[in-house]
Design goal:
Distance between the termini: 37 Å
Number of strands: 8
Strand order of the largest sheet: 3-2-1-4
Number of domains: 2
Order of helices and strands: HEHEHEHEHHEHEHHEHHEHH
Number of helices: 13
Radius of gyration: 20 Å
CATH architecture of the largest domain: 3-Layer(aba) Sandwich
Largest sheet: 4 strands, parallel
Structural class: alpha/beta
CATH class of the largest domain: Alpha Beta
Length: about 300
């Protein structure tokens, strides 16, 4: 998004428009503000309020769209065409967004070399394609002698690319997205061919695509928090859940090095991250009350 905002300013675009499930919109708003550009964020009705607050506080005009992410995508494309705004929607619509994600590969290589696998949560999949392109750059420069296999992860309630990969046929739109991982609820309606680009990148890497059940995503949130101190929203925690599922299926060997891309803090969607559980915490006023609380089972 930093690259997209830089290009928008250099080209004299009047502003940036971005269809988003919340995360990309917050980023577009921040970088647009830094570049001194007007920003319009189009989100599906029901997008987590914390994500919208991030965009709004940066001065973006946030507009809720009655429909799915694909409906917001269509409106963003229309506004861009009519008014000349740069469309920074994070599908393959904006080449600058895709190219910018190459840096994920560069930073991984700098830190650990080339892992055996990189697990990537995907909607349409430009992040995964960018990782593939970044490692291709490193190979072309002679800095790496191989590239990792790519593991594409989608929630079972919205998995058009996983379905296309498994069935070996062109991507078809997902009929009715239903998942706690709202950041990945992209049915690809109106642009299913973008899914084919991602499928090709997965196949070229010798990788795999896995759909992850809701319960496994929510369990991964707790695992990451309690073992690593990392609080992730469902759309990020699916990376760990997907790696575990791939291990169970025998797709990833026990001795292989795997990088799981965690893509969103749990503070962006705390209600979903808690599995909808909003039980009150215990209250005390005296040492005796505190001792009784601590003697009981811990808060879950």
């Amino acid at each position: 998004m930093a690259l997209a905002a830089t290009v928008a300013r250099a080209e004299g675009a009047p502003g940036i428009v971005c269809a988003s499930t919340g995360n990309a919109g917050a980023s577009a708003a921040a970088y647009g503000a830094r570049a001194g550009l007007d920003v319009v964020i189009l989100v599906p009705v029901g997008t987590p309020p914390a994500k919208l607050a991030q965009a709004a506080i940066c001065g973006a005009r946030v507009v809720a769209v009655r429909g799915t992410y694909s409906d917001a995508w269509a409106l963003a494309a229309a506004l861009s065409a009519a008014a000349g705004w740069l469309n920074a929607t994070t599908t393959f619509t904006c080449p600058y967004v895709v190219e910018g994600t190459r840096t994920v590969a560069y930073e991984l290589w700098e830190a650990i070399g080339v892992p055996d696998w990189v697990a990537v949560p995907i909607g349409a999949g430009p992040l995964l394609a960018g990782v593939a392109a970044g490692f291709a750059d490193l190979r072309a420069l002679g800095l790496a002698d191989r590239a990792p296999r790519l593991l594409a992860l989608q929630p079972a309630g919205c998995a058009p690319i996983v379905r296309a990969f498994e069935e070996g046929r062109p991507t078809r739109p997902w009929e009715a997205p239903a998942t706690v991982a709202s950041g990945l609820a992209d049915p690809l309606t109106g642009y299913p061919e973008e899914g084919d680009v991602t499928v090709a990148a997965i196949a070229a890497s010798g990788g795999a695509a896995v759909a992850v059940e809701e319960a496994e995503i929510l369990a991964a949130i707790r695992t990451l928090a309690r073992r690593e101190g990392l609080f992730q929203e469902p759309s990020g925690a699916i990376a760990l859940a997907g790696v575990a599922e791939a291990r169970r299926r025998g797709l990833i060997d026990a001795d292989e090095v795997v990088v799981a891309c965690l893509t969103g803090t749990g503070l962006k969607d705390p209600h979903a991250a808690a599995g909808g559980d909003q039980r009150p915490f215990p209250e005390v006023a005296t040492t005796a009350e505190l001792e009784r609380v601590l003697a009981g089972p811990p808060s879950d």
